[in-house]
Every structure is written in C-alpha cells, then in structure tokens.
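User: Please predict the structure of the protein below. I'd like the answer in structure-token form so I can feed it into my own downstream comparison script.

Assistant: Understood. Taking the following sequence of 363 residues as input:
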Amino acid sequence: MARTGRPKAELVLTDGERAALEGWVRRGSTPQSWALRCRIILESAAGASNKDVAAVVGSTPHAVGRWRRRFVEHRIAGLGDMPRSGGPRSVTDEQVAALVARTLETKPKNATHWSTRAMASQTGMSQSTVSRVWRAFGLAPHRVEGFKLSTDPFFVDKVHDVVGLYLDPPERALVFCVDEKSQIQALDRSQPVLPMMPGVPERVTHDYVRAGTTTLFAALEVATGKVIGSLHRRHRAEEFKKFLATLNKQVPDDLDVHLVLDNYATHKTPAIKNWLLAHPRFHLHFTPTGSSWLNLVERWFAELTNKQLRRGVHKSVQALEKDIRDWIATWNTDPRPYIWVKTADEILEQLATYLNRIPDSGD
C-alpha cells in the first residue's frame, strides 16, 4: 500500500481572514517573515500539500506544516509568536495589526520616527507592549540604513564583468582591486591620550590638531589578499600613473594584469590611456557608477581604518605614512583574501527584489 503521509488538518479560510492575509501579502511594507506566513496559509487553503506549498513560497515542508497547524489552532494570531504562560491577553489581534500598520505607514507630527513612548501615547497601549510587538515583527523605527542605487546605463554588463573576474579569473593573469584612499589626515590629540585601566576605557580628547594629509594608492590581489601600496601627497592622474608603473614592476612580465577600479576621472585621462596603450598587458574593468561595494579593496580599506587610522595619533604626515607602510607590511606577512560568493545573476535578482519594494523605482 502506498504511503500517504501524515494527514493534514483541514484549513478553511473565512472571507475576512482571506482578505486580511491577501492584504498583508500585497502591502509592500509588510515584514517579509509575516508575508511569507500569510502566503503559506493562502497556498495551503487551496488544498496543496506541504511539499508543494514549500516549493511555491520558497520554504521547507516542515515550516509549512508548523504554520498550517498554528493557524488551524489559533487562526491569524497563531502566525505570530505563540503566547507564553501567564495572564490572559489584553491586546487583540486587531490592535496588533493596527499598531504594525501605524508603525509602517505613519510618522509622528513632531519627530522623524516613532519611539515606544510616542507610540504608546497614541495607541493607549503600554510602552512594554509596543516594544514586544515591534520585536515580534522585527520593527526598529530608531534604526536607518543607507543605500544607493546605481544609475549607470551599463550596470548589468559591468556587474557581470567584475563578478566574472572574481569567480572565474583568466589564466596566466593576476586580478587586482585598485582604489585610492585620499585625504588621510595625520591627527594629533590636543592633550595626551589616557590609557585604558580596569573599568575605564581609553580616553582621548574630542578635539585634535591637523598635521596634513596623504593619499594611499592600493592594489589588493584577489587570489592571495596581498596588497601593493604607494603613498603620495597629491591625488592626481600623475600619481596614479606612477602607481601603475609600480604595479608593472612588481608583477612578473609573463602575466597579464586585470584591474578592477571605479570611474574616478584620474583613471581615464589621456595620459593614463597612452600609458595603457604602451602596456597592453594591463586591462581595466570599471565598476558601475555608485557601486564601490563591488570593489574588494574597499573592504581592505575598512580594515585599515578600523585597526590603524581611526584611533591613531600622529604628529606629522611622515609618522602617519610610516604607520601605514608598517601596517601593510604586517598584513602581507599573513594576507587573507576576501572570497566573493554571489554570482552576478544572484546580485541582480536581489536588486530587483529591492526595486519592487520601492515605489516609483522605474523598474
């Protein structure tokens, strides 16, 4: 006899429940976890098996079965965090839904975002209740993250080009990520730094004395993580040309050189183009405009900033440059390559998902 599996509890939606679930799925501001649970219930109500529902919504049969059982037992309330032992609930599902909708779709009159106190005064709920609901739905009005969408007309082609170099580098060639970290300031604190003590962190004055600036030209070898760096007081095409000459000397003559870099003007001057014509083994691959995240050397610059520059104290540019050279030398004794894992298609698919959440994105 063929196995039919564990029998599923019958799931039938009322008109009100179906309307509420479909509304949450359509609403762009609905948290993704909640929208997924709503889609699971809607697909399950159509009579599909847990396995088929999981394939449609991108989940697992086990998760589908769990949310199906919770909905049958507790209806829409079962799609949230299950209640713990204690007194009876004092907040209804309708109040929770209204709180979530107000958080996502409105702002207070006298502020740019809601706080738990402000929302509590508007809804009549307690501050702790508002906080619990926000945590349950993953809402954090006090947080904001930055983003930038590239307007480069060749964005797709450039993403495929750069990511292709990372995932499938050409034979008999080295791939470098190149960029400049300009205007690195030599900063000296106005008073001596007070060292860390038990129970007391290191303390520095909020003000400082500027001693000058320098620019670091850096090339991160993708395969090994090694860095070739060059420091210059100015940031022009002339200095970039000198850096290219440095790379040319340090890379074996029998290897091609592929450089991933941004669209800064100094990378495209006639002098640079003439130098590249005289050195045909160099190949430039430009990242899309406004897409520095595609250049792996930016991640290395973050390491340098966090571990050497941000809390560094330098009385002169010479002292700053010495510390940077020493740090690069130390890094190269045990380099750690950054491994790129996403394909170009995965990046573009994720970007399309973000665009679908942005009104009037033009996508």
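That's the full token string. Confidence is low (pLDDT under 50) at residues 1-5.
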